[in-house]
Specification:
- The complex is a heterodimer of chains A (414) and B (386).
- Chain A folds into two domains: 224 residues, Alpha/Beta hydrolase fold, catalytic domain (Rossmann fold, 3-Layer(aba) Sandwich); 133 residues, no CATH class.
- Chain A is 49% helix and 8% strand.
- Chain A contains 14 helices and seven strands.
- In chain A, helix 2 crosses helix 6, helix 4 runs antiparallel to helix 5 and helix 6 packs across helix 7.
- The longest helix of chain A has 28 residues.
- Chain A is globular.
- Chain B has two domains: 301 residues, Rossmann fold (3-Layer(aba) Sandwich), CATH 3.40.50.1460; 77 residues, Immunoglobulin-like.
- Chain B has six helices and 23 strands.
- Classes of the chains: A alpha/beta (414), B alpha+beta (386).
- Chains A and B meet through helix 7, strand 3 and helix 8 of A and strand 12 of B.
- Strand 3 of chain A pairs antiparallel with strand 12 of chain B.
Chain lengths: 414, 386
C-alpha cells in the first residue's frame, strides 16, 4: 500500500489521509520544532548550523511532504543560555587551551575550522576527486557539507540545499560518471554542477552556487593538513573533554532546575513556549506538528510530553542521537516509575498518548546515542551512519545533507 | 572576420555595425577540446548564434520592411560579424547572398574590431553599433569570452575587457556609438581571486586624449553580478528579443517638424527595461544595466509613429467573457467582445479612453478616460466591482 507524501504519522490517521488527498504542494503552514541538545551556545557556529538546518528542512524535507518550502515554519527554541555555566571557564580540563581559535576569528576561518573537524572526525581525505572515485555519493555529500559550513545567508543555504537535491539525485543515478575519469579538484564542482543542473533557461554565465561549492572544495583542500596534524589531535581531545563536560553540566543543570508544572524552569519554559506556538499553528492550519530533538533535547521533549504539558499533540517526534531510553532506564524523568514496566527487560513503558509517531535515529559510532525500542513501546529505531568516528558522530547528523534526505523519506513513509 | 555589407559612401556619415556571437566554447564544459583547468562553470550555449543571426537579419532587412534598420542621416554603411557555433552560421546579405561567418576567436574578434574602428573613424558623424552575445563575467570591469577561452593555461588572453574597450572607443571616434552587450555579469570567485587574470581591452584607452565621442550608449543585458538568460532550445535571448522588439517600432520620439521618429539611447534603453520586466514572468529576473552619455543622437530614424503593445485584462477573471474590453481615441475604437482572454492589440501612442462594458447592460461599466499609452507597453487590469 502506498501511503504517499505527507504520511508522517505512522498508522494512517485522518489527518494524514487529509494530507494525501491534497494537491502536490500545499500552501498551508506546517510547523517543525527543532530542540537542540547540550553543548550548544549562541555564536557564529550555532547560527550557521541553524541556517543550514533550516535550509535543508525547507528544501529537502518540505517537498517530500508535499509542502511548499516557504510554508514550512521552523521554530528553534534556544535554551543554551540557561545551561551550565563554568565559573572558571573549564579550567579544570587537563588541556584548557582554546585550540579551535587557532584557525582564526573571521567567519571563513571558523567555517574552515568546522570543515577541518569534519575531515578529522570522518577520516576523509581533503581530495574530493579521490573520494569521488571511491564513493561518488559520499563525495557529493561531503562537498555540500563543506560548502554549507560557510553559508552566510538563509538564501545561500537554501540555494545550496536545492542544488544538493539535484546533485545527489544525479549521483544516485550516475555512481561513476565518465567525466570523473579526468576530473581534478579545480574543476570537480564545475563538472558536477554542469552535469546535475536542470534548468528551463540558458544563462550566459555561471551562478553563485558554483562559487559556494568551489569555496567548499577550497576549504576541504586547505583544511586537510589541519585535520591530519597534531593540531587536529589536540582539537579533538579538547572537543571530547569539553563536550562531555558540558553534556554532564547541562544535564545536571536541567535535572536540578526543570521545575514543576506550575513553575517550570527556564529551559523547559523556552522549549514549551515554542511547542505551544507550533501546536497552535498546527491546529489552525490543519497540518501535522513535527518535532525534531537532538541529543538531550529528546529528554526535554519527553519530559514535556509526559509531565509538563501532556496535552500537546505531536504528530511525529524524531529523536536524533538522543538518550531518552537511557534516562528512562535510570528513571530520571518526572513521570518515571521504578515499578514500570513490571517485568523489565521484557516490558516497555508506553509511548506518550499525545505522540502519534516516534522515530529514534542513532549512529553506532555516536557514543552518546542510544536505542529506544528496548525501553519504550511503539517507537521505531533507525540507524544512520554519519561517517564520523566517536564524538564527531554526535554532532554530525545535521551537517550531512544526506541525513535530511533519509529523514524526508522516513517521514513520507510508514 | 566577415564583412557582410560595405556600402559606405565617401564623405557621408553612415552606420557601422560589428556583431559577435559566441555559442561554441570548445575548452569549456561540454566542449570537444581539452577542458580548461578552471572552466568557471561555463559551458556551451545554444542561443548566441541564433540571437546574433536574428540581430543581423534585422540589420540587413531590405528597406521598407516593417522591422529593420532605418536612418536616412546615417544609413547602414557596413556590417561585420564573427560567430562561433556548433553548426556553421550563414547570413543572407543583399549584395553577397548567403555568407558563412568566421569563428569568433580572440584573434578574429581583434581583427574585426580594428577594421570596424577604422571605418568608424572615417567620418565625424558616423554611428557605430557593437553587439556581443555570449559568455561574460566581471569583477571591477566586464569581460567577454571569445571562442578559444581556456585554450591555454592563461585563459584570460582569450577574453577581452569591454569596459576599458568602451573607454578607449570614446577617445577614438567622434560620432555616436551604441554598445549592446548580451552576456552575464556575475563575479566568479576564481576570477576575483586570481592575480593576473586581467583580460586586455581590444584597444588601449589613451588617457592623454579627451573623450571625443559625441554620444555613447552602453546597454548591458543584466545588472552587475547578475546572470543573463535565454530560453532553452536555441532561441533568441531575452535581451536580444527585447532589443529587436524595441527597435521594431516600439519606441521613438517624434522629431519636431518632421514625420520622423527618432530611436535614441534614452528611449531604446527605457523600452528594453520595460520589455524585460513584462515579457519574462520567470523567477530568473533580468534587469538591464544602462549607461547613456552625451547629447542624444538617433540610432534609427523611422517614418512611422511607434506602436504600443496593449495588454488589457479584467478582474475577476470569471467576468471577462461577459464584457467588451475597448480602447477609443476619437472615432477610432478597438474592442474585444466577450472573449475569455487578455485583449492584446498594438495601437499608436496617444491618449485613449480605456474601459469595459457589458453588452447586456447588467454589469457595471468600467471606464478610464485619458489613459496615456506610451511605447513600448500598456498594461491594465480593469476591475469590475461589485
Amino acid at each position: 500500500m502506498s501511503r504517499g507524501r505527507g504520511n508522517i504519522c505512522g498508522p494512517i490517521s485522518d489527518r494524514a489521509r487529509g494530507i494525501e488527498s491534497r494537491a502536490c504542494c500545499r500552501e498551508t503552514v506546517m510547523p517543525i520544532v527543532f530542540v537542540h541538545g547540550v553543548n550548544n551556545r549562541d555564536g557564529e557556529a550555532y547560527r550557521e548550523n541553524e541556517k543550514s538546518r533550516d535550509a535543508f528542512l525547507k528544501e529537502i524535507v518540505a517537498p517530500a511532504l508535499g509542502m511548499t518550502p516557504n510554508k514550512l515554519q521552523v521554530l528553534n527554541p534556544y535554551w543554551g543560555q540557561y545551561g551550565v555555566q563554568f565559573a572558571w571557564g573549564m579550567r579544570v580540563l587537563p588541556n584548557p587551551s582554546a585550540e579551535f581559535e587557532a584557525f582564526g576569528k573571521d567567519a571563513e576561518a571558523e567555517a574552515r575550522g568546522r570543515v577541518a573537524g569534519l575531515l578529522a572526525d570522518s577520516h576523509a581525505s581533503g581530495n574530493i576527486v579521490d573520494l569521488a572515485h571511491q564513493d561518488f555519493r559520499a563525495a557529493v555529500d561531503l562537498l555540500y557539507a563543506s560548502a554549507m559550513a560557510g553559508a552566510e545567508t538563509e538564501e545561500e543555504a537554501r540555494d545550496l540545499a536545492k542544488s544538493y537535491a539535484l546533485a545527489i539525485a544525479y549521483a544516485e543515478a550516475n555512481p561513476q560518471p565518465a567525466w570523473l575519469a579526468d576530473a581534478i579538484p579545480d574543476n570537480f564542482a564545475d563538472r558536477l554542477n554542469h552535469a546535475a543542473r536542470a534548468s528551463a533557461v540558458e544563462s550566459f554565465g555561471a551562478g553563485g552556487i558554483l562559487d559556494s561549492l568551489k569555496e567548499g572544495i577550497s576549504r576541504l583542500i586547505n583544511a586537510a593538513p589541519d585535520a591530519t596534524t597534531e593540531l587536529a589531535g589536540r582539537l579533538l581531545r579538547k572537543k571530547l573533554n569539553a563536550t562531555i563536560t558540558r553534556f554532564a553540566g547541562d544535564a545536571f543543570v536541567y535535572l536540578s532546575n526543570r521545575g514543576t508544572v506550575d513553575n517550570p524552569g527556564l529551559i523547559v519554559s523556552t522549549v514549551l513556549d515554542d511547542l505551544r506556538k507550533a501546536a497552535a499553528i498546527s491546529k489552525a492550519e490543519g497540518e501535522p506538528l513535527v518535532v525534531i530533538a537532538h541529543s538531550f533535547g529528546g529528554e526535554i521533549v519527553y519530559d514535556i510530553l509526559t509531565y509538563f504539558d501532556p496535552g500537546i499533540s505531536v504528530d511525529c517526534l524524531i529523536t536524533v542521537g538522543s538518550q531518552v531510553g537511557l534516562f528512562e532506564e535510570m528513571k530520571l524523568y518526572k513521570v518515571s516509575s521504578p515499578t514500570l514496566p513490571p517485568n523489565p527487560p521484557e516490558g516497555r513503558v508506553v509511548r506518550p498518548a499525545s505522540l502519534k509517531r516516534w522515530l529514534n535515529v542513532f549512529d553506532t559510532n555516536d557514543v552518546l546515542s542510544y536505542q529506544l525500542e528496548p525501553v519504550v513501546a511503539g517507537v521505531s529505531d533507525f540507524h544512520y551512519d554519519t561517517g564520523y568516528s566517536s564524538l564527531g558522530a554526535h554532532g554530525g547528523y545535521f551537517m550531512r545533507p544526506s541525513f535530511y534526505k533519509r529523514m524526508a523519506k522516513r517521514l513520507a513513509q510508514d | 572576420m566577415t564583412l557582410l555589407l560595405d556600402t559606405a559612401a565617401e564623405g557621408q556619415p553612415g552606420t557601422h555595425v560589428l556583431a559577435i556571437g559566441v555559442g561554441s566554447y570548445p575548452h569549456l564544459l561540454g566542449g570537444d577540446k581539452k577542458l580548461a583547468k578552471d572552466p568557471i562553470g561555463l559551458g556551451q550555449l545554444d542561443s548566441p548564434p541564433v540571437s546574433l543571426k536574428a540581430f543581423l537579419d534585422w540589420m540587413l532587412a531590405p528597406p521598407g520592411n516593417a522591422a529593420g534598420f532605418s536612418n536616412h542621416a546615417a544609413p547602414l554603411a557596413s556590417v561585420e560579424a564573427v560567430c562561433s557555433s556548433k553548426a556553421a552560421v550563414t547570413v543572407d546579405t543583399p549584395a553577397l547572398g548567403q555568407v558563412p561567418l568566421e569563428a569568433a576567436t580572440r584573434d578574429n574578434i581583434q581583427v574585426a574590431f580594428e577594421a570596424w574602428l577604422d571605418r568608424m573613424r572615417s567620418h565625424p558623424d558616423n554611428v557605430g553599433v557593437f553587439y556581443f552575445c555570449g559568455h561574460g563575467v566581471m569583477v571591477a570591469d566586464q569581460h567577454l569570452l571569445a571562442e578559444d577561452f581556456g585554450r591555454t593555461a592563461q585563459p584570460w588572453t582569450h577574453a577581452f575587457n569591454i569596459s576599458l574597450t568602451i573607454r578607449a572607443v570614446e577617445r577614438e571616434v567622434s560620432g555616436a556609438v551604441f554598445f549592446f552587450i548580451d552576456s552575464c555579469r556575475n563575479v566568479p570567485r576564481g576570477l576575483a581571486l586570481t592575480l593576473g587574470a586581467d583580460p586586455q581591452a581590444l584597444i588601449g584607452a589613451d588617457l592623454k586624449k579627451n573623450v571625443s565621442c559625441q554620444h555613447v550608449t552602453a546597454i548591458y543585458a543584466t545588472g552587475e553580478g547578475q546572470l543573463a538568460f535565454a530560453p532553452t532550445g536555441g532561441k533568441v535571448s531575452r535581451f536580444t528579443s527585447a532589443l529587436l522588439c524595441a527597435m521594431s517600432g516600439y519606441c521613438g520620439i517624434k522629431n519636431p517638424g518632421e514625420q520622423t521618429w527618432n530611436v535614441d539611447g534614452d528611449n531604446v534603453a527605457s523600452a528594453i527595461r520595460t520589455l524585460l520586466q513584462h515579457n519574462e514572468p520567470s523567477k530568473d529576473k533580468q534587469v538591464s544595466d544602462q549607461s547613456i552619455q552625451g547629447p542624444l543622437i538617433p540610432l534609427l530614424r523611422i517614418g512611422v509613429p511607434p506602436k504600443v503593445m496593449v495588454r488589457l485584462d479584467l478582474a475577476p477573471k470569471e467576468r471577462r467573457s461577459l464584457y467588451e474590453l475597448y480602447l477609443a481615441k476619437g472615432a477610432n475604437r478597438v474592442a474585444q467582445t466577450r472573449v475569455d482572454q487578455v485583449f492584446k492589440v498594438d495601437l499608436p501612442r496617444g491618449v485613449y479612453e480605456v474601459g469595459a462594458l457589458d453588452p447586456q447592460g447588467a454589469l457595471p461599466l468600467v471606464r478610464h478616460e485619458d489613459e496615456d499609452l506610451v511605447p513600448p507597453m500598456y498594461m491594465l487590469t480593469l476591475k469590475s466591482q461589485p
